[in-house]
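Exercise 7 asks you to align residues with tokens for two separate proteins.
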Amino acid sequence: MRNRRTLSTSAVALTTAGLMALGLGAASAHVSVAPASTTEDGYSQLTFSVPNESETAATNKLEVQLPTEQPFTSVRVKPMEGWTAEVVTGALPEPVTTADGATLTEAPLSVVWTAEPGAEISQQEYQTFSISVGRLPEAGTTVMLPATQSYTDGDVVEWDDEVVEGAEEPEKPAPSFLTTAAVEGEDGHGAHGAAAETPEAIDAEPAAASTDTGSVSAVGWIGLVAGLLGLAAGATALVRTRRQA
């Protein structure tokens, strides 16, 4: 009988640990990017999903670094209420020759969004930020877009770790995506469709779907509460087992 009680208590403890692990894992979220298209030599709308991860402060600024080895020649910002946006243009580290044979010495280097008072991203909230960019580099290129997230208490989080395929995800992964080749006969609205020919065509398309990190966070807290309830049940079972033994 005692062995059965011990096994029962152990099972409760293992279940509790699993629930807590699921809860804590789901509660975490990253700054991520969802491209409307990844087709080489085309234009795409990039939508950044930014969750607020601080328990005491709000997100009031986001800066996204743009590629410089294969720079975008066109960057447009989608306006959003309560936030100001600036496309920062500057000198490239080295001149770049485009597919058209032109030599670039300057290009858009970053995009900075700053919240107006009252528009910050608060606890348990997230926001999306969209830009139209082009042209995308050749197929098979990983486009890294390191992001800097600033909080009202002065804390700054750098999302700039490189994500390596097949390796464990880093703690602060940089938003990134992989470009793909054009597929003949597709309409250009999917990740593998034909390249959009102009930034105006991208502006007319609906925003890309992005991960609802608010819902993810809610699921995480539900999992955490379930884990704590399981822990309490496990402790109660352990006390009863010791008394009956």
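Second protein for Exercise 7:
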Amino acid sequence: MRTRTLFACCLTLTTALASLATQAASSILIWPINPLIEADRQKSAALWLENRGQEAVDLQVRVLAWEQEEFEDRLTPQKQVVGSPPMATLQPGKRQLVRLVNLEPPSAGTLRTYRVLVDEVLPPQPRPSQLGVQFQMRYSVPLFVVGPGAYLDDGAREAPGQGQPLAPELRYRVVDGSNGAFLYLRNLGPAPARLSQVDLSRDSGKQPLAEGLLGYVLPGAQMRWPLPAGVRSGQVQARINESRHKQPLAAE
């Protein structure tokens, strides 16, 4: 299995099954890429799947709990949110609506983090060739579920007028070790942070770290990323979630 996670405004997942004699491919479009469920406003979120390829494709949809430990993403089974339907066959040019249903809301004023995994289900191969290669593609999107009395403050939405805003609170530090320098980011806030367009401002100028997405830091978690050779310090700036502009981060 080859797994690729792509984050963009409109993402295409390409799946190929190849051998020496035959080759088939399908292209799946999935949107939105940032579904959200706020308990005070809705009980489910919509996820659309569209087959842009030339052949039918079987897909499986799962929702897993998402945590971050030891600088890694951890996905575990859960029963609080389910995808309906969990399986779908998409004919070429057709769409499928998947409802992400929240069966057990978080506690008031809190937020839970999940990953929605969409996997291609490959047909059985009666005589798999040792020379053939099968590729099963996976698409992953984040899902955030907010409990009663709160809303996700993503830096762009207008406040709904009531409830507690949940926003990230980031701290950074640069650590130079035997394996090179790393940027450590800690999220002290109650909401996740998606970081993009990240750079380090130094006396010699700005050092870009990520033109697009750098990654996520979940509430209460700490993540790290390697820095380019020769970079040991600087002021970190980044776009956080849906904010239109970069902002400086506070150092630890």
